[in-house]
Amino acid sequence: MNTPEDIQLKSSEVDFFYLAKREPNPRTRIRLLALGHLKAGKSKQEVTEMFRIVLITLRRWVLRFAAKGVPGLKEQPGKGRKRKLAEEQEEAFRQQVEKLQTLREGGRVRGQDIQVLLKEKFCVDHALPSVYHVLERCGLSWISARSKHPKSDPLIQEDFKKNFKKK
């Protein structure tokens, strides 16, 4: 049975095999090849057996092509779990981490400190390994500068370096 989408597919000027050869995404490439075989005259049953997919999947690909053309066959955004810390909050988070580092009077900011910051300021509960992933995504390194003792005085240290005599 030929639906309007099937007729549109067979009458289209798109060379699916040519596009499949140049497509970097393997899932999109499979979709292009399947539609290419349909256009070449293979039955839907033959194509589903060839690509080991169910008929409804092939039908969805044909409908997506009919509605949006070749771009409709590409991977759609929005797959997978959404981030706990939204992209809009990442810059504010980055500033808060930098502020936390400058306010620290000795020692360094640890992953646990950032985990608490995320929970208190952004209401986001991350496991410790995820905290490091968030830092990396924001362009921050979890390796900080060498820690300084709270009672250290940089002027006295420089004076000591100048007056120190090697034996």
Summarize the structure in words:
The protein is 60% helix and 0% strand. The protein is an all-alpha fold. The protein is elongated and about 90 Å long. The model has no long low-confidence stretch (mean pLDDT 87).
Report the total helices. Answer: 9
Poorly predicted segments: none
Based on CA atoms alone, the radius of gyration comes out at: 29 Å
Structural class: mainly alpha
Order of helices and strands: HHHHHHHHH
The count of β-strands is: 0
First-to-last CA distance: 97 Å
Question: How confident is the prediction overall: mean pLDDT?
Answer: 87
> What is the 3D shape?
elongated
| Largest sheet geometry | none
Strand content: under 5%
Binned, the helix content reads: 55-70%
Secondary structure elements and their pairing?
Layout: H1 4-11, H2 16-22, H3 26-39, H4 44-51, H5 55-68, H6 87-103, H7 111-122, H8 128-137, H9 154-163
Helix pairs in contact: 1-5, 2-3, 3-4, 6-7
Briefly characterize the structure.
This protein is 60% helix and 0% strand. It is built from 9 helices and no strands.
Keywords:
single chain; elongated; mainly alpha; 167 residues; 9 helices
